[in-house]
Amino acid sequence: MRSNFRIIKLSENYQLRPFDCGDNDLNNFLVEDALPYKQRLLSVTYLMVSDDDIVAYFSLSNDKISIPESDKATWRRIKKRFPHAKHRNDYPAVKIGRLAVSKKYQHEHLGSDILFFIKKMFVTDNRTGCGFITVDALRIALPFYLKNGFEYLRKEDILEEADKTVLLFYDLYPLTL
Ligand SMILES: CC(C)(COP(=O)(O)OP(=O)(O)OC[C@H]1O[C@@H](n2cnc3c(N)ncnc32)[C@H](O)[C@@H]1OP(=O)(O)O)[C@@H](O)C(=O)NCCC(=O)NCCS
């Protein structure tokens, strides 16, 4: 991340500036929904800012990964990292509800820097305990997440062209070793 960029939590007294990532839903969320979601305790939004711009934003919520969302082989692999006595039908996670980089700054590795920031955030200062990051990735953004170590929770999604989004997960545990 560039030295003049910083990450702040969106709050009521922050004066939003124009933001365009090329996707209207994501642009509108920041202006219309991010604060109401925060007030209703649904998600928290963070901004990457410079002195002049909103460079990027992301919002996070609590989540879980669970057996019904996963294919059998992937779930077996996930379970393997826990001692047998700790095997469960679901595990706590944090969901990236939205992630968008301003068009002006795309393809400069900032989205990847933000994913790294989130990974570190939940490994080093995890207030509750969650071992996974999840995201319902837009198909157009799949290469971005796969390149950053995210995996399909359901292998069938690789072939399923119809859905607009695909559920991916990232296992945080290896970062702690
Ligand atoms: C998707 C997004 C967050 C990626 O952020 P970014 O800072 O531009 O991405 P990075 O520079 O870190 O990209 C890392 C890698 O991801 C891949 N990638 C990034 N954007 C991509 C795109 N639009 N299409 C295909 N691959 C992409 C590339 O392989 C890239 O590696 P490279 O630079 O070596 O080619 C950003 O482009 C964006 O906000 N897009 C519009 C909104 C969106 O789709 N958000 C995702 C919601 S799930």
TrEMBL record:
Record's protein name: GNAT family N-acetyltransferase
PANTHER family, per database record: ACETYLTRANSFERASE, ACETYLTRANSFERASE-RELATED
Swiss-Prot/TrEMBL catalytic activity: glycyl-tRNA(Gly) + acetyl-CoA = N-acetylglycyl-tRNA(Gly) + CoA + H(+)
UniProt keyword terms in alphabetical order: Acyltransferase, Repressor, Toxin-antitoxin system, Transferase
Gene3D superfamilies xrefs: 3.40.630.30
SUPFAM superfamilies: Acyl-CoA N-acyltransferases (Nat) (SSF55729)
Alphabetized Pfam families for the sequence: Acetyltransf_10 (PF13673)
Domain N-acetyltransferase: 95-153
